[in-house]
Amino acid sequence: MTQGIPFNVPFLAVAAMIGIAFYIIISQRNLIKLVMGLSILASGANLFLITLGYREGGVAPIYTYTPAGIMVLPVPQALTLTSIVIAVACLALMLSMVIHIYRHTGSTDSEKSRIMKG
Amino acid sequence: MMSKIVRTMASLLILFALIYGLYIITHGHLTPGGGFQGGAVFASGVALLIVAFGSEIIHKSLKEHRLSILESSGALIFIGLAFGGLAIVFFYNFLVGSPIFGHIPPSGPNPGDIWTAGVIPFMNIAVGLKVLAGFSAILLVMALATTLTEVEE
Amino acid sequence: MRKIAIAVSLSIFVALLIGAAFLIHPFGYPPSPMDDYIIENTQRETGANSAITAVVFDYRGYDTLGEATILFAAVTGVVMLFRRKKLSRIKP
User: Fold this and answer.
1) The complex's ipTM?
2) Taking phi first (over 0 means left), then psi (-120 to 50 degrees means alpha), and beta for anything else, what does residue A65 get?
3) What chain A residue is nearest to C14 in terms of C-alpha separation?
4) pTM
5) Number of domains into which chain B is organized
6) Is there a domain that residue C33 lies in?
């Protein structure tokens, strides 16, 4: 550690997003708010993947009419593409199940939809 | 079913949205974009139609068992192209250097040539078909489910 | 009682996350020799002008195959959950 401790603002933003998402998942009771918390968690992970691959003063890694400069890393951007599509698919399935729970039990409270009791 | 101004403007704007989505899909090897992004733009055009006209009218001409034929054909084309280069490895790019899509661009910054990149444009079109059919089917089914009053299992 | 447990565990977790954010490499100087090879040799080996599309469909094609499978399974699940009982008129 010859340069001291680096103060990286994007990684602190990722830590804040994941912390807020975990607080929402633990403490809320409404089912729609739980689904929103899971979606914020997925977005925080995608942001972390993109900010890992940035080079100082870089341009996009595409060779059609590029300006001069060094290029940023292309592999984390490819992994983030896959992760965004998977998050959308999981969100669609979760919302369909919330609609079915509302039709069967009549409310979106997670304390009232415990069917196996006693 | 919204008012007459909204319906007229939606039926004019849907043309530009669909052509923009297809442009992003087919130019995936030259500019930022590709199969997944272009499919999402196309499906947002279909969402505009569902919001403006109501899901009952759209369901008369766009049923979900026809969209599943599109999606399955996209997946089969993708797997068939992956098996095409099995002589060396699985997923080998066997069209680089051959006369179909096989020009090699000069090194460094250049204006793009569309007849390059081997098997990648076909894979872009296959994945674009899969994504647009899948997202349109999800949107249509979820919009239909909220208009019925009595639904059985 | 429940609120005290939530507060203690969440504050320990967020403190560990912020501590990890200070220990990663400085933002803007990643150590990676693999991507130098990909940026140099994309136009000669695959023939595409865009390095990101070449990585998604040529160097890492297996990940795209798995993701297409997940998309297919999710669409099948959603359409199956909203079926209506109109097929009971078929006589055996």
Assistant:
1) 0.86
2) left
3) A19
4) 0.89
5) 1
6) yes
